[in-house]
Design a protein that fits this description.
Blueprint: E1 4-7, E2 14-21, H1 26-36, E3 41-45, H2 58-65, E4 71-74, H3 87-105, H4 128-137, E5 166-167, H5 173-182, H6 190-193, E6 196-202, H7 212-223, E7 229-231, H8 234-244, E8 248-249, E9 255-257, E10 264-268, E11 271-275, E12 280-282
Parallel strand pairs: 2-3, 2-6, 2-7, 3-4, 5-6
Antiparallel strand pairs: 1-10, 8-9, 9-12, 10-11
The structure holds zinc ion (ZN).
The site of zinc ion has 5 residues, from loops.
């Protein structure tokens, strides 16, 4: 045995996820578009008392977002950038948002996208270590940041500093998509065979410009209906990777036990394995 690689459900080597902010009214049209193409999106929402443009109604969010398998995540009660406020203010903004969304949508919500300048700028005697520390205490599993567009397609190493692949208006977006879609992970060096993630983010109101919605549709079309891509929300990817990381191995790496509730897939020296919940396999 030389190397093993995570594979997403059904052995797929690639995953795609989307993250759209602010719950603006254009999210209705965007949710319908991504649903039509079979993509999964995480919608990051604010508190009710933060009047942010003409937002979606609770009913629209239930019907167009949650009923179609998309995710709702925290985006700050008053949309306040964690890097610019004292930790206690950040705690209140995240916790109040989480409590309201959980109550309104009757579910456990652990995802987040940093609002405003997030963790890209600092003042008020705070730091990334302090922000991450209180997010962990508030049971926020992951938080998306911005400002590092790239075509590495890597899974995050720090889930509280989850850097997306690209904003939809990145001038290289179609180039990145074509590279991702055509990648062959079955051969080559280690970096080629590692699992690949494409993470697209933005605000749906940005499509209200000349050719904006055509641009959105072209992105969806190029990424949709690929047999080797798992279409998932942010939290689905987080949960699956956590489950993969919970696999238990013997010292010689000839047995693997899956203590999780997921069926886990992995590729070892070019051979695909799947391990059901509670199962131990011999390699
Ligand atoms: Zn925002």
């Amino acid at each position: 045995m030389r190397y093993s690689f995570l594979r997403f459900p059904d052995g797929k080597p690639k995953a795609l996820t989307l993250s759209y902010d602010d719950g603006c009214k254009q999210d209705a049209k965007f949710a319908q578009l991504v649903t039509k193409y079979g993509l999964k999106c995480t919608f990051n929402l604010n508190g009710d008392r933060f009047k942010n443009r003409d937002g979606l109604t609770t009913e629209e969010i239930k019907e167009l977002i949650l009923a179609n398998g998309h995710e709702v995540a925290v985006h700050g009660y008053y949309h306040r950038g964690e890097g610019y406020i004292r930790p206690i203010e950040g705690i209140v903004d995240v916790l109040e948002c989480r409590k309201e969304l959980e109550k309104k949508y009757d579910r456990i919500i652990r995802g987040m996208a940093y609002p405003d300048c997030g963790i890209t700028a600092w003042a008020s005697n705070t730091s990334y270590e302090r922000v991450k520390s209180y997010l962990v205490d508030l049971d926020i599993a992951y938080s998306r940041t911005l400002g590092g567009d790239n075509d590495y397609f890597a899974l995050p190493t720090d889930w509280h500093k989850w850097v997306p692949t690209a904003h939809h208006n990145n001038p290289k977006i179609m180039e990145y998509i074509d590279k991702f879609v055509s990648m062959d992970t079955s051969r080559g060096y280690i970096s080629t065979r590692s699992p690949k993630l494409f993470y697209l983010w933005g605000h749906s109101y940005e499509f209200d410009c000349d050719g904006g919605w055509e641009h959105a549709e072209e992105i969806c079309k190029r990424l949709s209906h690929k047999d080797d891509i798992w279409y998932a929300t942010n939290i689905e990817i987080y949960d699956y990777v956590q489950a993969y990381n919970s696999l238990v191995y013997n010292a010689e790496f000839t047995k693997i036990y899956n203590p999780t509730l997921f069926t886990i897939w992995l590729e070892i020296d070019g051979k695909m394995y799947s391990i059901k919940s509670g199962e131990t396999i011999n390699i």
